[in-house]
Amino acid sequence: MKVTVIGSGNMGSAFVKQLRAAGHTVRVAGRDAAKAAALAAQHAGVESVALDGAAQGADAIVLATPYEAAADALRAAGDITNKVVIDITNPLTADYMGLTVGYSTSAAEEIARAVPQVEVVKGFNTLFAQVLADGADFGDGKKATVFLASDSERAKQAARALAESMGFKVTDAGGLKNARYLEPLAGLNIYLGYGAGLGTTIAPTWITKS
């Protein structure tokens, strides 16, 4: 699959690493062109491109920016009509211990409203960058879970294909409004990791009793 990653921070870097390792064609873009170029240079076959026009030819766009910058980053990426956008953002407060959006809406829904020409799927937001970078395998047959919420079945299937190609377990979390649950779940995971001192190699999952 041809994937454009917008953002070259910790999560963007982890996506570039794992997507390329899974055999996808990867391009990376961001407002800091030099940082994006430096990230691309670390991985053979990865191309850095200008944010202007970064959506061209992409089968999917990974939106790895801060929530506050997400809509503007998408608008800057060129023709994004009907593009699959994987929103990994969390609307975090400055201290990372709370959410700025919630209860009656979500970051994903707000992005979808702001940029209605794209097909948004919420996913990967419950993973720490370290888990994504290190890979899905937790040992003893355990794999980290990617939860996907979208009103677009096409977007959900594209995100599922990418997640599974990187080795992650996937749970269908329903429609996009259920991002209202996934974002607080990420907030809890962040609290457990930082506030409760459990570290950044943890991830939420659901288990089924046999």
Summarize the structure in words:
The chain is 35% helix and 19% strand. The chain is of the alpha/beta class and 210 residues long. The chain is globular and about 45 Å long. The model has no long low-confidence stretch (mean pLDDT 97).
CATH superfamily: NAD(P)-binding Rossmann-like Domain
The largest sheet, given as strand count, sense and whether it forms a barrel, is:
8 strands, mixed
Mean pLDDT comes to 97
| Distance between the amino and carboxyl termini | 35 Å
Net shape: globular
**Helical region count?**
7
Q: Enumerate the spans where pLDDT stays under 50 for 5 or more consecutive residues.
A: none
What order do the SSEs take from the amino end to the carboxyl end, as H and E?
EHEHEEHEHEHEEEHEH
Q: How many structural domains?
A: 1
CATH topology: Rossmann fold
Share of residues in strands: 15-25%
Helix percentage? 25-40%
* CATH secondary-structure class: Alpha Beta
The protein's oligomeric status is: single chain
Which architecture would the CATH scheme give at its second level? 3-Layer(aba) Sandwich
